[in-house]
Amino acid sequence: MFETARYEWERRFRGTVVIAVGMTILTGFFVWYFSVLDTESLQRMATSLPPAMLEAFGIETIATIEGFLAVEVYNFLWVLGLGLYFAYTAGGLIAGDIERNRMDLLASFPVSRSRLLFDKYGSLLPPIVVFNVAVGLVVYGSVAAIGESIDPIHLLLVHALSIPYLLACAAIGTVFTVLLDRADTAKRGAVGLVFALFLLDSVTANAERLGWVGNLSPTQYYDPSEILVDGTYALTDSGVLLTITVVLLLSSQTIFKRRDI
Amino acid sequence: MDAIEVTELTKEYGSVRAVDSLSFTVSEGEIFGYLGPNGAGKTTTIRALLGLLTPTSGTARVLGADVREEAALIEAKRHIGYLPATLGFDEAVTGRRVLDYHASLKGDYRRDELLETFTPPLDRPIREYSTGNTRMLGIIQTFMHDPDLVIMDEPTAGLDPLKQEEFNEFIRAERRRGTTIFFSSHVLSEVRRVCDRVGILRAGRLVGLEEIGALLDRGGKRVHVVPSDGDSLGVADLDGAVDVTTVGEEIQFTYTGEYNTLLDELAGHDVRDIEISEPALEDVFMHYYGTEHETNPPTETADV
């Protein structure tokens, strides 16, 4: 079992480490930067921003370390950066093999197409865990190092609850990758859609009558600012994300089983 | 049980029929050559046999499993080796890692033995591989799980002549082990050296299915002769010389008669240059299956 997942994860290992190191350095820098910031004026500037922008960047407060990290690390790096990264990577899972003639060999293996697909998707799980653990630890350590403190439970939650969100983004990429034969098109399609949904969610957040549009976006169901600053979260949101993931994966499976390669 | 049993197999892409109601069988222990020009539908057939494509109508069985039934086909694939025409390996991993991955899914009973004949640099990443090395890695993965049926799409493309001969010898040894081999080619000379039987595909239809001996007898040889000035050959009168044409000084014809008769005839003349080669596939079709000569490819000079 999981031979393909293991093989794919081994191939991803180096890239995962590089990205994890990059993100921890960036995170460490943000934390250090906060320690030298004039937070009062930053807060005044932040509250003068238009509401849509506040929503897009998840700005609740920027004068505390929690608020600052929620914006810089979790809304930018996690929701947008990693969301797009996993949509993009998943977009290449199958289409890349088809485009580069690798699928012929894979399809000759004595394994079902479903297992091939789920194994490949599964190879994205270790990077999700690695990124969360690495950055979580660095945040906790560096915050302590600058003499601030952060609620470890909130920190744990903001990372744990990001996993369903990232899985959903990867599932969006998976649908694209089984539908299209060209890896580039599939990756761009997935990235474009996740980004468009992120924008829709931000723009419509303050428009009462269009609020439902934002409900289509996975970003609606993971709000790092609320978790980190207020410690509030809804497990039903994670449930929605996991449901989206399962539905998208089952759809991908059906498409992939039926299509010609 | 036949190793491969194709029944009225048809695959359409929109309005294009890639293969058109093919029916043939390949017996156990046989080497079957699947011959046809590029674009005839060879790869489409092979991909349908492996379940990569769903037939529009008709079906095929490999080792008894219907290609439309995934579970049965997966079971059969444990005993099938496949060498695709274009080999796609992950560029960044080493050949050894690729084989380990294949082994984890298919099994590995013969890798060491195969590595004595085929010698790709296993510890280098695939991106550094030459075409020949990639081919050899492909051949190893095809046979490493000791399959009962091997399906190969243009297997010797990219191998140098020496390796090609080794490969042919290897294939003959495989037959002695009882392996059934199905391979496609567009080069008659390649097929004739190892096959027991051939199927000839043209524009998606099977136009011939016969023992290799019969095909070769009927296919004959392509002869080009340049006689010395003023000498005219009586080859047109020879029994078995067909399609005689003169291009400049050179006389060209296809010869299907007794070789000695031809040599006797030529011996009586002053021959300045001569070439006797395999006929182009298209010529075989034209003469022996009565099909229209739609395209006019250059005569294939096979290395006999």
Write a brief caption for the model.
Chain A has 261 residues and is mainly alpha-helical. Chain A has one domain. Chain A is built from 14 helices and no strands.
Please estimate the helix content of chain B: 25-40%
- For the secondary structure, the number of strands of chain B is 14
- In this structure, how is the largest beta sheet of chain A organized? none
Sheet-strand content of chain A, in percent, reads under 5%
Overall 3D shape of chain A: globular
Structure, described:
Chain A: Pfam families: ABC2_membrane_2. Chain A: Keywords: Membrane, Transmembrane, Transmembrane helix. Chain A: The chain crosses the membrane at residues 12-35, 76-96, 124-147, 153-178, 190-207, 227-250. The complex is a heterodimer of chains A (261) and B (304). Chain A has helices at residues 3-36, 39-47, 51-56, 65-91, 95-99, 103-107, 113-122, 125-145, 152-160, 162-179, 183-204, 211-214, 224-230, 235-258. Chain A has 261 residues and is mainly alpha-helical. Chain A has one domain. In chain A, helix 4 (65-91) runs antiparallel to helix 11 and helix 10 (162-179) runs parallel beside helix 14. Chain A is globular. Chain A starts with a helix and ends with a helix. Chain B is of the alpha/beta class and 304 residues long. Chain B folds into two domains: 4-216, P-loop containing nucleotide triphosphate hydrolases (Rossmann fold, 3-Layer(aba) Sandwich), CATH 3.40.50.300; 221-278. Chain B has ten helices and 14 strands. Chain B has helices at residues 42-49, 70-77, 95-106, 111-117, 131-143, 161-176, 188-194, 212-219, 259-267, 281-288, and strands spanning 4-13, 16-26, 31-35, 57-62, 65-66, 80-83, 149-153, 180-185, 197-202, 205-211, 221-227, 241-247, 250-255, 271-277. The longest helix of chain B has 16 residues, at 161-176. The model of chain B is unreliable at 291-304 (pLDDT under 50). The chains are: A mainly alpha (261), B alpha/beta (304). Chain A binds chain B through residues 3-4, 6-7, 10-11, 97, 100-105, 107-113, 257-258, 260-261, and chain B through 47, 50-54, 70-71, 74-75, 77-78, 80, 82, 84, 86-90, 92-93, 97, 101-102, 104-106, 141.
